């Protein structure tokens, strides 16, 4: 039997950025009032929206949006703009909230993240994390005590390629020494992560629900595909 592998997406699959009320302490709108719950929810939506068009921005910020996961400076530029559009008017507050987004320690693992990685590793399955991201997510895995279980981190800003480009899936397969047909891609977005099917990978899509509402989707996905 040839080597087998599982590729995982990061955001909405293995980890999720979840709202922490403490983040908004002292954050005010242009009138100096604290952000209400609706404004906070919209801010979180804009900070975590993985794909899709962005409206109402100039060509410069459109370019930043389209290339944000290839260049940390463009990522910072467009998300700072989103924070301002969400009502955060003070530069120091924008910087603090953006810092939460790109801090791996702010991301919450799903309940079965550590267990699924340990199970796969213990049976000799090769593991890669393939993420459209503009910052180093490896400390999040170190904090969970599972970084050593991941054979390859294939991060768009280091690779110069983003999903759904097939090159990123083929690159992961090559580095793990597996054929794409022997790999399962698990992600939360059909168009982006599901593109792995075009190179022969099997695909499982999980719901990027709050971590408290998704206890075992990763374990279920690997079991359903015979891993």
Quick overview:
The protein is of the alpha/beta class and 227 residues long. It contains 9 helices and 7 strands; from the N terminus they run ββααααβαβαβααββα. The strands form 2 sheets. A 5-stranded parallel sheet has the order 5-4-1-6-7, sandwiched between helices. Strands 2-3 form a two-stranded antiparallel ribbon.
Throw out a few tags for this protein.
227 residues; alpha/beta; 5-stranded parallel beta sheet; 9 helices; 38% helix; 13% strand
Question: Topology, pairings included?
Answer:
Blueprint: E1 5-8, E2 15-17, H1 37-48, H2 59-67, H3 72-85, H4 91-101, E3 107-109, H5 113-122, E4 126-131, H6 138-144, E5 152-155, H7 156-159, H8 166-176, E6 183-187, E7 202-205, H9 217-224
Parallel strand pairs: 1-4, 1-6, 4-5, 6-7
Antiparallel strand pairs: 2-3
Helix pairs in contact: 2-3, 3-4
Helix-strand sequence: EEHHHHEHEHEHHEEH
Overall shape: globular
Number of strands: 7
Overall mean pLDDT = 89
SS field, number of helical segments = 9
| Computed CA radius of gyration, to the nearest angstrom | 18 Å
Strand content: 5-15%
The side-by-side strand order for the widest beta sheet comes to 5-4-1-6-7
Distance between the amino and carboxyl termini: 13 Å
Summing up helix and strand content along with how strands pair, one would put the structural category as alpha/beta
Q: Level of helix content? A: 25-40%
